[in-house]
Amino acid sequence: MRKIAIATQTTDVAMMRVILGCVLVLLAIRTLTAWEATLSPSGPGPYPELKAFVGEFRFGWSEIEAARVKAEVSYRADRVILKAIGGTLGFARAFYALDISFDGEADRVTLQTVSSQLVERYAALTVTERVLGENGMLMNLRSTDPPGEKPPRWKTVKVIKIRDIWAAMLYIRSQSLAAGEMVRLLVFPGGSPYLVEIIAIGPDRIDVMGAPRDAIKLDLKIQHVNTKKGNTLEPHGKFRSGKIWLSSDPSRMPLRAEIDIFIGYVFAEVVAINVNEGIAL
Where are the domains of the chain? Predict the structure, then answer.
């Protein structure tokens, strides 16, 4: 029975990739909107690939820590792999219990999405979002436990040249990011696609892990892509703008991110990192 189940799952994934290829052809022949023509080239930039590492990050609101996440980046043949687990803690957990896990794979050469799975476990509900990628085209499947009234089904993300959040992070990091450089790309964090615009501000200095660090500062703007209205751009319902800091040394590691919301900001910040020391999470 186990062999049959594995074979069935493999066949389902293969079928999804065939469907992705067909949809990609159909979408590629339509007329691009004006903003789509301004997207950055889909190929990765010139910067060397991210080194394998294990790190821990804290998350919160306006410097109030609410969650911790452990992450491991590794390589397997032609894949770049991210595994992450974490959840809310302390005072925040008493009001909002949440545990998450993320498993993502991107193509090591193209930095395009191969697959990802995000699992969010709340007190009385578990939400799982799976993504499959093929040459810049994505399909996603969102399911819940307990299940909803309608059975989950695979849906095509109706824009092309798009990446999930993991592949998008790798792509942005790969760019030269010289002061003044702009990077525009489509990102699918789940639910809907977004246009993300990154502008390299230049060298900066930021206190993380108990010491000042040289960094590259990036400005971030996010707009919702309404696929039901001809891919028109709309303001993000929650997020306004943000900032990202990457280390300016050759490793170019993520240091901190801030996203402005209607009151204050949410943040993510590295608290510990070990390069080339892969461990099981």
Answer: 2-275
